[in-house]
Description:
The structure holds 2 protein chains of 2 kinds. By secondary structure, chain A is an all-alpha fold. Among the domains of chain A are: 30-159 and 266-333; 191-202 and 215-261, no CATH class. Helix content of chain A is 58%, strand content 3%. In chain A, a hairpin with a 2-residue loop joins strand 2 (213-214) and strand 3 (217-218). Chain A is elongated and about 125 Å long. Chain B is built from 7 helices and 2 strands; from the N terminus they run βααααααβα. Chain B is 61% helix and 2% strand. In chain B, 29% of the residues are buried. In chain B, helix 1 packs antiparallel against helix 2 (59-84), helix 1 (10-47) packs antiparallel against helix 6 and helix 2 (59-84) packs antiparallel against helix 3. By secondary structure, chain B is an all-alpha fold. The interface between A and B is medium-sized, with 29 and 30 residues. Chain B: It is found in: Membrane. Chain B: This is Peripherin-2. Chain B: The chain crosses the membrane at residues 21-43, 63-82, 103-130, 265-286. Chain B: Keywords: Cell adhesion, Disulfide bond, Glycoprotein, Membrane, Transmembrane, Transmembrane helix.
Amino acid sequence: IRSYYAAKAIIQESKNTSPKLLMRAFCPSLATNRDKLAQVLWVLNWVSVITGITLFSLGLFLKVEIEKRREVMSKEIDSVPNMLISVGLTACAINFLGGIICNDCVDTSKFLRWKLLMLPYIICTFFFTFCILLGALMCYIMRSDLEESLFWGLREAMLYYKDTDMPGRCYIKRTMDMLQMQFQCCGNGGYRDWFHIHSLPNELVIFRRLRSNVEGKYLIDGVPFSCCGLYSPRPCIQHHITNNSAHYNYDYQTEELNLNLRGCRQALLEYYTQIMHSIGLIVLVIWLFEVSVLIGVRYLQTAMENVLRQGDPDCESDGWLLENSIADTARYNFNIIKNLGKCYQVDDDPNIDVPSTSQQTQENVPIKQIPVAR
Amino acid sequence: MALLAKKFDLAKRVKLAQGLWLLYWLSVMAGILIFSTGIFFKIELRKRSEMMDNNESHFVPNLLILVGLVACGLNTFGGKVCHDSLDTMKFNKWKPMLKSYMIGCGFFCIVLFVTALLCLLMQISLHFALAEGLKNGMKYYKDTDTPGRCFMKRTLDMTQIEFRCCGNNNYKDWFEIQWISNRYLDFSNDEIKDRVQSNVEGKFLMDSVPFSCCNPGSPRPCIQHHLNNNSAHYDYDHHTEDLNIWTKGCRDALLSYYGGMMNSIGAFVLMFILMEALVTIGIKYLSTALETMADPDNPESESEGYLLEKSIKETFSDIMTKIKAPFKGNQVEEGDAEAAPT
């Protein structure tokens, strides 16, 4: 604590001469600038509460969308929605408190209640805005995680497609079919993925003749009905796809509309990327809004503190972002942190007159040696 | 003797005016809601007009849109009157129009009732439009190269997937229609030639359905061809298999979808009639309360508000005499003319 006062005393001397960062004078008038700022900030804080609720609901929406298709994802992608939900709730709470504080700032006496809390509040909000920015950035980098999860998830879903009698997997067929119909896609990367999968239940395979038998699996060049293209002019061909002679007037290499050509992994990835890009954009806008509200609150705080320092509520007071330049403030805070652990040292305290050490020992020795003279 | 008379002092009049003003604004919002449901209904009909042969009647949604707009207008006027009612000068501006306004509101309630009735009865006409439209739709399913019908296949497939239905009445309708175009039939194949020649109209009929009839919830891969032939598929009995394809007909599915929509719109309009009646009664009370003030210049004076000036019988006989008066006038004159020469 003593070192804190020492540092502050040094800086106090240079206070009047050094420029303050982005200083603004708040002039008195009938509707004072300070009061107007406080009222505007009160309204803005309430708007920020609404944006906090928006963030929360965006996170919830993303979570619901991911849960809907959880079965085709190998691992849970819950970091981004959870982050958005928690950031949204925290933003609501912080801005609610900010609104109450700004409402009380109009009256100098009420401001005294919040005086000690305001600086910590501003610092917390400043670090919180970094969280919002992180949330926005995470939306954009989630893509690679999602792609990997979809790749393994879809592969597994296609392997278990035929297991409609096994508990825990009986609805994978329906989920996969509805997915392929809704997104107009087929397979993992393309419809050929279905050729590698043993997609018929065992009992149905017994009486079929095997054409090519690899690893004991019955592989056919057929796809499920849900891969059928809706825009095809001819009735859907889902079996013997690579065999041109099995169907009249058919060439599988030039036929484009018969089946869905897009892979489901790519379709789902595009869908989720679109959602997340728009969410990321909205979060960035909210971040800018929060930063501007924070700057306003900081101005209000410094202006109110100066009013209290000058003692007269009606006089002009200055408001600023930082008392000194960024470099000085950083050095000041760094000194505080450096000296937090140290104990009180007499040498460091400028208020105490400390003579030089050599003089001190000489004085000590004579004092001890002076006998009582007679 | 006035019907349902009630005493009003200043405070009660103010409360009545304020409450009525609020109710009028709620009615305006309800009117906007009716307008938007009319638009929504129109869009939904347009979306699936191909299934109804493009000749479905748009009378009911158009009526709903009109009714919504008129309701907004009437209720805004009523709200303005209520707002001005406590200021004598402003109210005198509106006083002469009030009687015709209330009669207009009465007619509007009757129109609303007719609208609600039509909403509920439209399902019958929709039933016939859908039956005809789906029959033709299935007939043109294969004509993907005929201009004007090339998207029928896609529309019908999407409808069957979305509404989880198959065919018109049920899936067997597909057995009576050739839904595979001749372009994709190999007529050099004997089997196909036999089948076409054995049919009276030369159509290629099969016991199979399009892929859009397939049920994704079926535990086995979809069987679309040779549906009636148990031996064509392993472990398959077409009498007991009910999960393979959708068995419901698209006409029933679409009817229940539109029916639900129309029932809720009709119910909402009926509730709106109650609200309209309430505000009309309220404004009648307010206007009579303001008219019968004992001392017109003193706003604090007491007044009496009523629904009808005389009892129902007397009011009705008054109206009848008023209607008969022009005709009676001629008879009396003729009688005089006859009496005069004699």
